[in-house]
Design brief:
With about 120 residues, the chain is mainly beta. Helix content is about 15%, strand content about 40%. The chain has a four-stranded mixed beta sheet, with no helix packed on it. It has a three-stranded antiparallel beta sheet with strand order 3-7-6, with no helix packed on it. Strand 6 and strand 7 (about 80-85) form a beta hairpin. The longest helix is centred in the first third of the chain and has 17 residues, at about 1-20. The protein starts with a helix and ends in a 7-residue tail after the last strand.
Amino acid sequence: MKIFVQKVVAITLMILFFGCEKLKSGGEIVDVVLNKKELILTKGDSHLLIATVIPKEAKYMDLIWDSKNAKVAVVNEEGLVEAIEVGRTKITVITEKGNKKDECIVIVKSAGVVKE
């Protein structure tokens, strides 16, 4: 949460310093922010990460998703994370030009055994 607040403050300061003209429709991406910094999943589960591009009117909004360890979890081009095996990995979203990114730590746990 602290990092998210820092990014919001930084963006607000950039808007005040540079003025809104630089951020009008068709401008460059200022930041990309994921809705989660850490995600805990059970093996076999999935979860959709949401990437917010700032400003929302920016051009070149294509994003590239990547998993540091695809044996633990994979992510598709929509941001859907699928837990494959117990472990820990990092999911990264990068802007098309590669100059802005955000990351989420994914922890995959084994399914609990139900006692009867």
